[in-house]
Amino acid sequence: MAVAHLDLATDKHAAASRRLSRTDIVLYSLWSMFWLLMIAIAVQDYYRDGGRQWWQPVLWEGSSLAMATVWLVLQRRVDRRYAALIDQPLRWLLHHIKWFPLIVITFVVSVYSIRHGVYALLGQTYHHEPWSQVLIYESVKLVVFFGLWLGLIFGFDAFARSQEQRQRMLVLQKSLAEAQLAHLKAQLRPHFFFNALNTISALMQVDVPRADRLLTRLADLLRATLQWGDQEITSLREEIRMLELYAQIMQERFADRVKLAWQVDDAALAGSIPALLLQPLLENAFKHGVERCRDAVRIEIEGHRDGDRLRIAIRNTGSTLASGSPAGVGLRNCRERLSVLYGDAGNLELIQLPDGVEVLVTLPWQEHRA
Amino acid sequence: MMRVLIADDEAPARGKLQRWLSEQGDIEVVAESEDGLSAAEAIERVKPDVVFLDIQMPGLSGLEVAAQLELETAPLIVFVTAFDEHAIKAFELNAIDYLLKPYDKDRLLKTLSRIRARPADGSARAAVATARAQTQSRDRLLVPVGETLQLIDSATIEWLEASDNYVHVHTSSRSYILRRTLQDLLEQLGDEQFARIHKSAAVNIASVKAFTPLFKGDYEVQLRTGKMLRLSRRYKDQLFGRIGR
């Protein structure tokens, strides 16, 4: 599941690596050495056969070098487009091979034009075999050459990609672990926990059913926390259920000071979402809204599917962005996870409303499969 | 009769305390507050003997409320908290009463008997002093505005003027009257920012513009606003030493 998500982020990385990557540098170095060798051999060969004009072998090889390099540069530029295919070597190969006929034609035409042109400029004539033979000879040479370099490029790209994926998995694991820890801390946060216990202790003297209800909610939340394993993606339904448990406990404590409104479309509930992504956002709404504001606070939780997007908004009255501390661990972690999982397609916005703050989370729609 | 004020932002928590305290023959709950600022207003208005002060409250925390009280006249404070490692350590250190949520009746009774047995032993002072040390009470000052209280930034204060049992707090825009001693106010605001210039006045060092010598070693202090004040020779050396003159 994680790997499927990772592909979405590839474009962003491609944009960032317009400059030469390490893979490209190594590849171009090898390329230069290869051609230096080719030229050296050609020159040696030429002198051994009695030739006396050194520029001739240099021109032959140089013209080939020029055209081959044009094709290599072009390959490197479109390489990212095929990067996602590198996990399927055959398709990757076919995608490259389909260009071969075009390469042969452009190569022969350009290289021989250059050679004829330069000879003519120097007042000489370039002699070679008849065109039909040239075409066959150059095609065979190019197949060998093309195959060799394609193999090399594949090796390099596959290695670079596996490195990149490993790196991303590490980042993902790290932010997931942080989210887990933050969640545990939040659930078992002494302040929250002891206050809830105190509310139960107070309520049970006067309203046993309510105290019982609150105690059960607290137990549910603790159980859900302990059961919550290492699953990285969950359904919005599950995520909302955790939010409700937390909100119910907070509402018992601040019954007269907070009003909650849930507007989550049924259609949106099946969507997948990183587990515990929303929990810290709701906690913030309580922390900055209810616990700091003297007046009654309204918290709204909205979720709906918008085409190929899932949007979740958490709004609270009674606080302003300026009064809040700069983005805390909760927000940072949330943003990191969205960016690792969805690239540019996932984001979190903080919006100042006339009477409060809205956190808007947008991510690509994906049906959740348990 | 012991007059008690309860301050807590959670209704159930207030209810529990109210019920158990009311069962005591010698205790009368005279007021309840649900946030810091109204707790401070209620303390000022009803002058309770004892305050049960929850630490985590909206607006102004319980510690901030206590920090703004006058040392000499402050009521006895029992801090109530669910979890505040830092503050609790300080309470332990200074033998200040506190309740940890959730607490049972025995625990509350123990606290009450400690309070009853307590002669005027300065524990109210210790609570305020500890609360001041735990909060940024130097930076903000709670002042009365009409019927209510309001926090002002202490950097906006130009000078302080004592008269009888009051202190006039002058800012560039307006003045406030506090029923506190100058000594206590300076203790709260700290001597880094404020300095006495004679027996019944102090200035914000940042708002001093110039000094002009007068007779007998006295000086005249000119504030940025143009206000002229007298610097008595008794406080002169201290002030000049502080500003490196």
Number of strands of chain B: 15
Judging from the principal axes of the Cα atoms, what is the shape of chain A?
Answer: rod-shaped
Greatest interface and its residue counts? A-B, 25 and 22 residues
Q: In order across it, which strands form the biggest sheet of chain B?
A: 2-1-3-4-5
**Broad structural category of chain B:** alpha/beta
Round the Cα radius of gyration of chain B to an integer and report it: 20 Å
Q: What's the total number of strands of chain A?
A: 7
Q: What is the helix fraction of residues of chain A, given as a range?
A: 55-70%
Instruction: Describe the main β-sheet of chain B briefly.
Output: 5 strands, parallel
Q: What string, H for helix and E for strand, traces the elements of chain A in order?
A: HHHHHHHHHEHEEHEEHEE
Instruction: Give helix and strand order of chain B, one letter per element, not per position.
Output: EHEHEHEHEHHEEEEEHEEEEEH
Instruction: Enumerate how many helices of chain B there are, as a single number.
Output: 8
Helix content, binned percent of chain B: 25-40%
* CATH A-level architecture of the largest domain in chain B: 3-Layer(aba) Sandwich
Kindly report how far apart the N and C termini of chain A lie. Answer: 11 Å
Condensed summary:
The complex is a heterodimer of chains A (370) and B (245). Chain A is of the alpha+beta class and 370 residues long.
Word description of this protein:
The complex is a heterodimer of chains A (370) and B (245). Chain A has 370 residues and is of the alpha+beta class. Chain A contains twelve helices and seven strands. In chain A, the strands form two sheets. Chain A has a five-stranded mixed β-sheet, with helices on one face. Chain A has a two-stranded antiparallel ribbon with strand order 1-3. In chain A, 27% of the residues are buried. Residues 1-17 of chain A have low confidence and may be disordered. In chain B, strand 3 (50-54), helix 3 (62-67) and strand 4 (76-81) form a beta-alpha-beta unit. The longest helix of chain B is centred in the middle third of the chain and has 13 residues, at 105-117. Chain B has a five-stranded parallel β-sheet with strand order 2-1-3-4-5, sandwiched between helices. In chain B, strands 10-9-8-12-11 form a five-stranded antiparallel β-sheet. Chain B is elongated, with a radius of gyration of 20 Å. Chain B has helices spanning 11-22, 36-46, 62-67, 85-93, 105-117, 123-134, 182-189, 233-243; strands spanning 2-7, 27-33, 50-54, 76-81, 98-100, 140-145, 148-153, 157-163, 166-171, 175-178, 194-198, 201-204, 208-213, 219-223, 228-231. The model of chain B has no long low-confidence stretch (mean pLDDT 90). In chain B, 41% of the residues are buried. Helices cover 33% and strands 33% of the residues of chain B. Chain B has two domains: 2-134, Rossmann fold; 140-243, Beta Barrel (OB fold (Dihydrolipoamide Acetyltransferase, E2P)), CATH 2.40.50.1020. Chain B is built from eight helices and 15 strands. With 245 residues, chain B is of the alpha/beta class. Classes of the chains: A alpha+beta (370), B alpha/beta (245). Chain A binds chain B through residues 190-191, 193-195, 197-203, 205-206, 252-257, 290-294, and chain B through 9-13, 15-16, 19, 34-35, 37-38, 56, 58-59, 82-83, 100-104.
